[in-house]
Each structure stands twice: as C-alpha cells, then as structure tokens.
Design a protein that fits this description.
With about 60 residues, the chain is an alpha+beta fold. It has two helices and two strands; from the N terminus they run H-H-E-E. The protein starts with a helix and ends in a 7-residue tail after the last strand.
C-alpha cells in the first residue's frame, strides 16, 4: 500500500501537538542507562520526539 503525501505526513511527524507525537508520548522510551549518568557527569542532553530534554541524576541519597 502506498501512502499519499498527506498520510505520510500524518504518520511520520512526531513533534509536539502532532497525532503521532501525541500517541508516542503516552509510552515510556528507554533512552539511556543509569551508568551513563555519573557523579562527575550527572546530566545529559537528549533530543526525543522533536523536543530537547535533560536527563539528570539526583545526587540525594534514596536510602
């Protein structure tokens, strides 16, 4: 089945406010492992679903 350009746009655009973007934002997405965030480098900048985000490691103890 071949999609029309309009159907392709509808299904592939994932930015904020788009139908596919709204659907994908309902689910968890693994984008890093905890070992990537250390005490020396507690933050990491990522781009996910067309948005710039910051991953961070909370330095407070959880015990």
């Amino acid at each position: 089945m071949v999609l029309t350009p309009e159907e392709n746009e509808l299904l592939t655009r994932i930015g904020p406010g788009t139908p596919a973007g709204q659907l994908l934002r309902r689910y968890w997405h693994p984008i890093a492992v905890s070992q990537e965030l250390t005490d020396e480098q507690p933050t990491r900048f990522v781009r996910l679903l067309g948005e710039d985000l910051v991953l961070f490691k909370d330095k407070r103890s959880t015990s």
